[in-house]
Amino acid sequence: MSTMPGPCRVSDPAVFGRVAVLMGGTSAEREVSLASGGNVLEALRSRDVDAFGVDGVPALVELIGKGRVDRVFNILHGGDGENGVLQGLLQALGVPYTGPGVLGSALTLDKIRTKQVWMAAGLPTPRYVRLPGGDDRGPEDIRNAARELGLPVFVKPSCEGSSVAVSRVLTEADLDDAVEVATSYPGELLMEQMVVGDEFTVAILADGTTHHTLPSIRIVPAGEWYDYNAKYVADDNQYLCPGLEGRAEDEIRRLALAAFETAACSGWGRVDVMRDRTSGAFLLLEINTAPGMTSHSLVPKAAAQVGIGFEELCWRVLEGTTGEGLTP
């Protein structure tokens, strides 16, 4: 399976026009988005792209209305940056943007609906229980769901990323803490059977209309699991790339690509996968359609493995703009 996209399709940065790097916003992932956006902005400017930072959707709409935006590099993590709202807005206004379109973005931010689509397509994913939001969910619902699935489990918001508000429940004693976190979150929750094994991620990068998988990364957190602190703060995790060899590497990348395309995704993204330690089976967790681009982020690590540096990676993502085609 090819790991290397072809040559860059654009050589003149002027082709991209005025590029708004959209970051920040109001979601729980604001700080991570600002860090990612700052890195992307610096990388694009280093290659003479006429790029500038924009904090949040309202500021972007104002600039579009004034005719100051030709293209958007979306690095707005979570919320309206990944739920289809931004994508629909830009599509209606005729402004090209990076990442998947309306359907792929809206679907994959919702972990429950993504799993339903995967299961309908026969793709493997851990067993789960949907916990309704708001007043329709009580503490006993969470305990009953844990009994149905059997411990250990994860409890996580269906529509958040970066391990925000995620609880790991190993024993009955952990349920009280999970209930406390869960009851403070108003939206739907996903309770998912915990897979005991190794965690992997596979980056996807478009080259024209073709999607390429980059080498898998095996994530070995220094702590007990890969939580928010491990993702964005800690410096003692291990990232093994490629994470696998031979047939297993081919298999995980085929599965990741199938998951990405089945969920109507395009452009670029990252697919998270677990491998059961006992059976060796791969199980899909989720898709990130605006992956982090911080010093701890995984897509740049995978790209570097095949000789694509950070600046070139940002350029290639911009080449994959959804909407108006690029003319090299």
What share of the residues does DSSP label as strand, in percent? 15-25%
CATH class of the largest domain: Alpha Beta
Number of domains: 3
> End-to-end distance, in Å?
27 Å
- According to CATH, the homologous superfamily of the largest domain is ATP-grasp fold, B domain
Describe the overall structure.
It is a single chain. By secondary structure, the protein is an alpha+beta fold. The chain has three domains: 13-98, Rossmann fold (3-Layer(aba) Sandwich); 107-124 and 196-312, D-amino Acid Aminotransferase, Chain A, domain 1, CATH 3.30.470.20; 128-193, ATP-grasp fold, A domain (Dna Ligase, domain 1). It contains eleven helices and 13 strands. The protein has helices at residues 30-46, 57-65, 85-93, 102-109, 111-120, 139-149, 175-183, 228-232, 246-262, 298-305, 310-319; strands at 18-23, 50-55, 71-74, 128-131, 153-157, 167-169, 189-193, 197-207, 210-213, 217-220, 238-240, 268-276, 282-288. The longest helix has 17 residues, at 30-46.
Which helices and strands appear, and what pairs or packs with what?
Blueprint: E1 18-23, H1 30-46, E2 50-55, H2 57-65, E3 71-74, H3 85-93, H4 102-109, H5 111-120, E4 128-131, H6 139-149, E5 153-157, E6 167-169, H7 175-183, E7 189-193, E8 197-207, E9 210-213, E10 217-220, H8 228-232, E11 238-240, H9 246-262, E12 268-276, E13 282-288, H10 298-305, H11 310-319
Parallel strand pairs: 1-2, 1-3
Antiparallel strand pairs: 4-7, 5-6, 5-7, 8-9, 8-10, 8-12, 10-11, 12-13
